[in-house]
Each structure stands twice: as C-alpha cells, then as structure tokens.
Amino acid sequence: MLMVVLAVVCGAGAIYGFAVGPAGAQKGTSVNPAPAAPPTSSAQRAQIQRGRTLFLDGCSSCHGNDAKGKQNIAPTLVGAGSAAADFYLTTGRMPLSNPTDQPTRAPPAYNRQDIDALDAYVGSLGQGPAIPRVNIAMGNLANGLSSFTLHCAGCHQVGAAGGIVTGAIAPPLNDKDITPTQIAEAIRIGPYLMPNFNANQISAQDINDIARYVRSTVHPDDAGGWGIGHIGPIPEGMIAWFLAIVSLLLVARLIGEREPE
Amino acid sequence: MKQSRSPIGELVVVGALLVAGACAVAFVLLYVFDSLNAQLLGLSLGLALAFLALACVVAGKKVVDQTKGVEERPELVQEDVEKEVAEKTVALREGVSRRKLIIGAGAVAGAGLGVAAIAPLASLGPDNVSEILKASPWRKGVPLVDDSGRPLSADQFEVGSWSTAFPQNADKKALGASVVVVQILESEVLENKQWAPRGIMAYSKICTHAGCAISLFRYPTYEPTSQPPALVCPCHYSTFDVRKSAEVVFGPAGRPLPQLPLSIDANNNIVAAGGYVGNIGPAWWGVRKGT
A210: Cβ–Cβ under 8 A, 6 or more apart, which residues? Predict the structure, then answer.
C-alpha cells in the first residue's frame, strides 16, 4: 500500500515537472531545462508547498502564478535553480519594487525558514543550479587573489571595492555581511548583468579560494599604509596630481631662490 | 666687483652636459635599434633632460657670478654711467674660466638633445608598422586554448559565460594573440551567424580605442528590464554589442572589435575558422575607422 502511494506521488511530481512550459533565456542553465527530480519525502513536499504559498503571495505579481515570468516584466524561474532563489532572497535583492531597477543589496525581506521554502519551490520548477557548498577554510588566499584577478576584478576591482559596467553597478564585495555561499551562488548564476561561470571555468576549489580572498578584503592588509579607498587608478592618479605636483612646485620654488647677498 | 671662481662647479656643469649629451645619443640609438622598448626610450630621454636641468641649476648657482650690479640713476640717461655698467657686465663674464669647455659641453648636450628631438620624426615615414600590426597567429584550424594551454571545448561553455583564450603554440603576449570568447543564445546572434557556432563567438581582447584588455562581459538575466549582452573595456567603458559583431554602442572606440570566425571540430573543440576580420590593435579617435 505504501509503495503504491509513493509511486503515485512520484508520478504526479514528474508530471508536474514536465508540465512546465518552454523556458525563455535562462543563463547558467540549458535553454530548455530538464524537469527537476521529484521530491522524495513528505517533508520536502510540504516545504515546496509552503514555498509556493509564499511565492503566490510575494512574487507572483511579477513572475506570474506559474513562475514562468511575465513578458517585459520578469523572467521565468523555471530552471533558475534554488541557488538563484537563495542568492536573490538572502541578499534582499528580491522582491524588487520596480522591475526595471537594478536589484541591489538590502536587508532580506524573508526569514531563513521562508527563504528555505522558497528555495525549495523554485528548485522544484526545473533543473537548475543547486545551492553550492563552500568551505573557505579549504581556500588558498594566493590562488584566490589570482582567480579573482582573472575572472572578477575587471568589474569588481582587484580590491573588491566594486565598480561599474555600462548600464549597471558592479557592487562592492568587501562587505562583512556577504557570505561565502552568496559569493559562490553569484559566480554560478551570474545575477543581473554579471556573466555566469560553470565548474569548467571556476571549479569548486577555485570558489573556496575566491571566497576566502573576498572575505579577506573586508579587512585588507594595506602594505603601503593607506588604501586610498581601494578603488584603483582614479584616487591613485589624484594622489599623483595633487601631492606630486605640489611637491614639484616646492622643488621648483627652492631651486629658483637666490642666495641672500 | 667680486670675482668668484668655482672650478668644481664648472667641472660639474661640463660633466652633466656631457652625460646629458650621451643620454640623448643613447635615446637615438635605442630608437633606431630597439624602438619598441618604450621604458628604455623614456629612461634615456628623461635622464638627458634631468642632467641638462642639473647643469643649468649648477651653472646658475655656482658658475655665473651672483654679484648684483646696481645702476645708480639720479638723472636721466648718462652716457658715461651706462658705459661703465656695460663694462662691468662684460667684466663679470671673466669670472668664468674655461668658458670654451663649458660652451663645448653645452654644444654636445644641445646637439644630442636636438637629434633626439628630431629622430622620432622617422616614425612618420614609410615602414613596416602596419605589417607588425596586422600580424596574427590565427589561421583556419588553429585551436583555442585557455591560459594554461588546455584546448577549449565547446561543451564547457554555457549561455552567459565568457573566457579569455589564446592560439595553441603561439606567443600569448603578441598583440593579435588573445581573444575573448563568449556564448550567447544562438537566436540572439544578429550578424555573421556563420562565425558563431552554437552562439559561441570570439573577439580580439585588445580594445580598438586605446588598446586596453577587454575584461568585462555583461550578460543580462532578463534583457527586457536591463541591458543587451556586451563586451566592455574597463579603461574608458567602450561597449561592444556582441549580437552585432561587436558594434560600438557606447564609449570612445571608433570601430568594432575584430571578430575571429569560429568553428567546432570533430572533437568538440573550438578552433578558428580563419583570421581576424578587421584590424587588431588600438586607434585613437576616429583613426582607421571602418578599415
């Protein structure tokens, strides 16, 4: 009897998974994501159900009642994966008041239990990236700096103080509230205009290294004594202009002075 | 009038002038034989000017007499006084011994720096610069490799990812070597679809504005509420629309990034399908636009 019930439930889950329509442009995943594996325990089913209730209440006005998105307002969440849901919710980027704004970091709108439920619901919509596991104790700081310079510093600056691309702000990462898990999620899903990186480009070990490096930028070791904001060439150039030129003027004044008679 | 003499100061001036001349000559030789070594060119010219400045400072402080000659002027022009002051002024020059040596050293420095200033005019003339700029290791069938030399597989990319790649077995530092590889949806590719198998495409990593390395790729999570995919240069934010063969949509660049046509070989590795389309390397303002 129990086996029959389980089989029926699993079958229903599979049908539900297949019922989701063709997804739109989903980065970080295949274009037509495979259906997610059906939940295997009643606790998971209850979790997904609770997530769906929260979703209908707080997210469906933009993402639609079926989470397949609304034309020109919000993307489909089918195949987005629980990693994307967890990133956007734990960093307070979602819910977003105006769909055309860049989502920015804010205090999360949901508590941890609600986020877990919403993660489970979005993860159940179609196969997408799961929440990555990070262990910064396993990370190598030097390799992290090297990988960060190669993949991330173009936008976020080598000191992780943030920067800009045309049309968006690359947020600062030297913030004590940013968790290693959020760093890993952002690398895998590529939020907003950020590109995404899969395990071929940035391995799980690279993520440990990068997360360790990014955490170290919260309290940077300023070998020169003064970080000048850690945002690179503009303040450094201003130091050259305003301090170096003043000292050159002083030198010019001194060598131009006549000796008293 | 005091007749001060400073043989040591004069020697310092002569020495500094000769060193300045030697540095200027070194600049000319470097320019002729090693013209791409900008650091040494800058160092030699900088030292020449620094030693010239040193010679001027020492000459002003130690060699030329510092005594002031004051012309009393109780009345209007008095020819005899004027004549006297003129004689005194001439007499001051006698305070410098070895005038000829100093003038000779000054001539050496002046000649050296003069030639150093004129020599770079040769850069305006005909030479093989355009050949150097067009040189590129990319040919049809050359595999793309990552920075550690492993071939790039088409399977390791996914939509919205990007990577820097190099030609296999070639000098990575050559101007024409490095490319950025991106993948977008095949349906998003609007121009030259035949160069972008599976939506994977490669462009020169050298910005066509000032030659910085293109290191920013933006790919929208949801394009209708944000921005289309583009490569962006971190120096001046020139923005290239990858859907339209890197057309410039923002910033100072005057022409698109040269595109490297791609194909996928039997082993699923990404290989070049030909050489660059367009000139690689920087061009300021609108120079070489459209060529």
Answer: A139, A144, A147, A148, A151, A152, A183, A187, A202
In Å, the largest CA–CA distance within chain B is: 103
List the 12-71 stretch of A: residues with Cβ below 8 A of B.
25-31, 69, 71
ipTM rounded to 2 decimals: 0.72
Rounded (5°) CA angle A37-A43-A48: 55
pLDDT digits (tens, 9 = 90+) for B160-219: 888 899 999 888 888 889 999 999 999 989 989 999 999 999 999 999 988 889 988 988
Q: Check: CB of residue B247 under 8 Å from CB of residue B236.
A: no
B196 vs B248: CA distance, rounded Å: 19
Whether residue A157 is found in the same domain as residue A252: no
d(CA A122, CA A29): 14
Q: pTM for the whole thing? A: 0.68
Give the separation between CA B18 and CA B20, rounded to whole angstroms: 5
Q: What is the pLDDT of residues B137-171, one digit of tens each?
A: 899 999 999 888 899 999 888 888 888 999 998 88
Number of domains in chain A: 3
- The enclosing domain of A200 has a CATH number of 1.10.760.10
> Cβ of B218 and A200 within 8 Å?
no
Query: Residue A137 corresponds to which tokens in the numbers above?
Result: 């104790």
